[in-house]
Amino acid sequence: MRHDHVISAKQLTRGDIESVLDRASDIAADPGTYAGRHQGTLLGLLFFEPSTRTKMSFSAAIKRLGGDVVDMGPVDASSVKKGESLADTVRVIEGYADALVLRHPSEGSAKMAAEYVDVPLINAGDGAGQHPTQTLLDLYTIRENAGLDGLRIGIMGDLKYGRTVHSLAHALTNFETTQHFVSPETLALPRNVRYDLHEEGASVKEHTDLEHILPDLDVLYVTRIQRERFPDESEYRAVAGQYQIDAETLEAAADDLVVMHPLPRVDEIASDVDETEHARYFEQAHNGVPVRMALLDHLLEGDR
Amino acid sequence: MTADRELRVSKISSGTVIDHITSGQALNVLAILGIDGTDGEVVSIGMNVPSDRLGTKDIVKVEGRELSQSELDVLSLIAPVATINIIRDYDVVEKHRVDRPTEVTGVLQCPNHNCITTEDEPVDSHFEVLDDGVRCVYCDTIIREDLAAHILV
Predict the structure, then answer these.
(1) What is the CATH number of the domain that holds B128?
(2) Which chain A residue lies closest to B113 (C-alpha atoms)?
(3) What are phi and psi of A17, to 5 degrees?
(4) CATH 3.40.640.10 fits domain A132-285
(5) Catalytic residue at A261?
(6) In angstroms, how far is CA A302 from the centroid of its own chain?
(7) Within 13 Å of residue B119, how many CA atoms lie on the same side as its CB?
(8) pLDDT at residue A11, as a whole number
C-alpha cells in the first residue's frame, strides 16, 4: 500500500485492503511483535465532532505501537473557537505530529485538509461523506466471520447520510459480493454512491423492508436512523420502528448470520440480540485497534 | 447574416464573439466569464436571435478582450454548441468550438451546504465533468440538472 493520505474508501484497492487486513490478523495473533515498532511517533488527533470508539481506538493503536498522541481536544477549548480555519489548524498541528487523524462535520474536509499538509492524514469521518478506517475494521470483521468473496450482505438504516455505509459500499466493490440496501425511501443511497456502484458494475439491490431478504443474508449491517432526519417525532418513530431488529426478527435468519453495527446504537438492535450467536458488533468495535495499528504501521513504514 | 440581424448585433473592431449560445444562456455565459461590465469593456448581447441551425440563439460580443480557450471551454457546460470568433480589425482571425473540459474550478457553487467548499476556507469549488453532469471532487455531490443555476456570481 502506498498512500500518503487515507481520505476515502474509493481510493482503496483490493490489494490495499488485503494488505491491511493481513497485517491486522498478524497483530491480533501476536500483538507483542508490533509493540514499540513506532517508538517516539506522535499521532495528532483533530476531532471537531464527538467520538468515542474512533478516537480511543486510534489512541490505543498508536500507543500499542510504542507512540503517543497529541490531541487538539474539544473544539470549545481550541483556536477553532476563535475562528481559525481548518486549513490553518492542520498546518499548525502537522508541525507537532508525524501523522494526523481528522474528524470534521463537513463533507470534503479531509480532502481539503490533506492538500495543506505533508504528513499522512487519515479521514476519521467527514460529515455524511466517508469513514474509510471504519470500513477497514468492518471488512476485517466480515472476513473473520463470513469471508468476503461470495458474500451476501444486507446494509440497513440511514443509507443517505451514513458515512460508514458509503465507505463500506465502495470498498465491497473490490470483492465478489451482493449488496442489499434496506431503508425507507427518504433515506436511500445518495446519487453519488449509486453512480459509483453502477460504474463499478457492483451487484446491488434496494429494498424498503428486510423481511423477504433476511433469510438469504450472510451479514446484516445495521445503522442508526437519526431523529433529526425527520420533520417530526411521530414520523421518525413510525419509520425507525420498521428498521429495528430483535431476537425474534432473527429467527427467520440463517443460523450463522452475522449482525454488525458501527455503534453507537440506540434501539435499532434490541439488547436481546446481544445474547445470540449473531451479535458481532462489540467484536467489531474491538477490531478497531488491530486494524488501525495495521493501517498506521503501513502509513508510517518509512519513518521506522 | 441578413441586414436585419446585423442591426440587432453590430460588428466589433476587436475582441471575442461567442455565437450559437443556447437561447436564454447569454447572461449565464457572462457570469461564468466574470464579465459584469465593471471593468469598462463594451459588451453587446443578443438574446433569442433567429438562427438557421438552432431556431433561436444568443450571441455575446466582448470588445477589447480575447478570451482564452480554457476560459471558454467552461461555457460548454451550458452552451455546448457555442462557437468562438476572435476578432482583430473587424476580421475573424480565429474560430473555435468549445470543448467539454475534464474539470472546472471556481465556476460552479456546490449545492451541498455541508460541503467544505461552501465554508470560509481557502478552497475553490472544483468539479469533475461527467458525461451527463458534474461532480464535486470534495464532497462527491453530482449535479445533473440546470447547471446554470449553480454558477458562482
Answers:
(1) 2.30.30.20
(2) A106
(3) -65, -50
(4) no
(5) no
(6) 25
(7) 19
(8) 95
